[in-house]
Amino acid sequence: MLSPIALMKPLLVLLVAGLSAGWALALTSEQETALTEAFEELSQEPTEEARSEAFDVLNEAEYSQLAWSDFFRNFFSQRRFTTELAESWTHLVEAGGRPVALASGVSAAEALGAAVTDDDSAPMEALHSFMNALNWLHGLGSVLDAADGPEIVYAVRDALGGQTAGVAPLAGHPPVADPAIARAGMQLALTLAEYGRSDPDTRAAIADALGLAPTARAIWTQTGVFVFDNTALNEHQQTSLRSLLVSIPADLHAVVAVIVPEAAGVNPAQPGLATSGQLVYIEPIPMDVMTEPDEFLFRRTGPVAPEFTISAARRLTAAIQEVQMPQRPGLAIQRDAILIRAGQTRDRYLRHLVSPSLYMQRPDELLPSVATLWFINAEEAFRTAMDFFHLRQREALDQFLLLADLFSGGRPATVLHATDTAGMVSYSQAPLSRTHVTKLQLPGRRPGVGSGALPVDLALIDGIQIGGNTWGFELSHHGGVARYRRR
User: Fold this and answer.
1) Which residues contact 102 (CB under 8 A, 6 or more apart)?
2) Angle formed by the axes of helices 395-408 and 307-327, to 10°?
3) How big is the CA angle at 364 (ends 437 and 431), to the nearest 5 degrees?
4) CA-based nearest residue to 432, from 454, 397, 459
5) Helical H segments across 43-122, by residue range
6) CB-CB contact of 65 with 155 (8 Å)
7) C-alpha Rg value of the chain to the nearest Å
8) What's the rounded Cα separation, in Å, for the pair 192 and 169?
9) How far apart are the C-alpha atoms of 306 and 15, rounded to whole Å?
């Protein structure tokens, strides 16, 4: 492919004896010869005659991953996966359905394997073949059933054998110097994720295919998230990130990769990576850089945590918000009502170190910003919110409860977090209670007067168990906390 690929292991030794039995089920020698000749033509100047010949064999042969892997491994040892071949596969799959689609997936898998073990004699041709095969696999997912996903993953695993060092800028892998190769490696991982990210066995097979290093493998298998850092994160940072990702319920978001953009060569505004999931961008802040103790206004010595971990938590909160608010529109209604009530008064915000003008201009920044205190220590954040409440600055507590609702995913409990100075995140469950609200009074309007009453259908939090106590809240006609009781 390109120079880093020359450093990889040579082509996998074919286990011919182990594959021969499977091959006998699929093709005769005449069919093998006919199919080879047909695909050679389809890879260069496709004709209807070649397509017909290939389809006849594909339609008659019994599908076997081992058999097709054997055939296409031999085929791509001397050839490339061309755009013409991809076009030909499109016609063949339309005509032949699922068995042909699976065979095409195996062919793309073997083309990937051939490209990463290329002898570097024609690096650009190998890269083009790799990307053509990868593009085919990415589009094929929309044709196959979800149950077929593992079959494709296993084919890629067997073809690659974990030989992606020097290709994918994954955490724990050697650096990838060429941006084109790094992008191809990231897309490979993201495409495989499309085929079975939610299934534990398929995740393990994807980890094997990519040859994930221990911490990166643990993050992926536990959370379904890749880390693309191109060596920017040390083991301490990776371990901290793992504890953070594990602490967040996976169904709150759709994050499939955490990326250090400058190191991985990715522009967050235009990443150029195809995925149905979310991409989260973080910075490799040194672990000895701590948050400000003044985040907790009324504490003589507020708790601190590594800025690396808390910054990543803010980015993940933004990703959670991006998924949860469309699913639960009431969250945005509550947030906007809080912002109207709090206005430009700094002491009405739980995170008082940030200018309120930021929230006025970009409302989506409110909850990720409050998450700073939440992930440092959610119980201390609650105490700080209560201190504000006692000073009649009630919106800080409303912000805390709204973030609790966001992290609950609508369930009857939320997740409380705390991060120690080593960057390790711990978490626990906090039961919630809710009350049904059918209207909110807009700030500045007297109850029941004019158009100030907004019809809503909301389940607002009116209770939480935290710090060893159960707290109940009486809500005002604005939807904010007016009074509390503790028991």
Assistant:
1) 63, 65, 68, 144, 148, 151, 152
2) 80
3) 45
4) 459
5) 48-60, 65-76, 83-96, 98-116
6) yes
7) 27
8) 15
9) 50
The Cα 333–Cα 442 span in angstroms is 11
Interatomic CA distance for residues 5 and 145, integer angstroms: 33
Q: How far apart are CA 284 and CA 426, in angstroms?
A: 21
Q: Work out the angle between the directed axes of helices 200-210 and 214-223 (0-180°, nearest 10).
A: 150
Mean pLDDT of the chain: 90
Concatenating the DSSP letter of every residue in 183-221 gives HHHHHHHHHHHHTTTT-HHHHHHHHHHHT--HHHHHHHH
> Residue 98 has which token pair?
């699922």
CA–CA distances in Å: residue 475 to residues 214, 244, 332, 394: 49, 33, 18, 11
pLDDT tens by residue, 12-58: 232 333 333 333 345 788 889 999 999 999 999 999 999 999 999 99
- pTM recorded for the entire structure: 0.90
Measured in residues, the chain has a length of 487
Q: Which long-range contacts (CB under 8 A, 24 or more apart) does 62-65 make?
A: 62/25, 62/26, 63/26, 63/99, 63/102, 63/103, 64/22, 64/23, 64/25, 64/26, 65/102, 65/106, 65/151, 65/154, 65/155, 65/158
Dihedral sign, Cα of residue 62, residue 68, residue 74, residue 78: positive
Question: Of 258, 283, 260, 270, which is closest to residue 175 (Cα–Cα)?
Answer: 260
- Residue 14's pLDDT is 29
What stretches of 211-348 show up as alpha helix (H) in DSSP? 214-223, 235-246, 261-264, 307-327, 330-342
pLDDT digits (tens, 9 = 90+) for 296-324: 987 778 899 999 999 999 999 999 999 99
Round to the nearest angstrom and report the end-to-end CA distance of the chain: 67
Query: H-helix or E-strand containing 456?
Result: strand 453-466
How many secondary structure helices (H) and strands (E) does the chain include? 18, 8
Please, what is the angle between helix 65-76 and helix 149-160, to 10°? 40
Tokens at residue 263, please?
Answer: 């190191």
DSSP 306: B
Kindly report the number of other CB atoms within 10 A of residue 144's CB atom.
18
Q: Cα(382)–Cα(260) distance, rounded to whole angstroms?
A: 32
Sequence-ordered list of residues with C-beta below 8 angstroms from that of 24, at least 6 positions apart, any chain: none
Which residue type, as a one-letter code, is found at position 405?
A: D
* Contact (Cβ atoms closer than 8 angstroms) between residue 261 and residue 444: no
89 touches 104 (CB < 8 A): yes
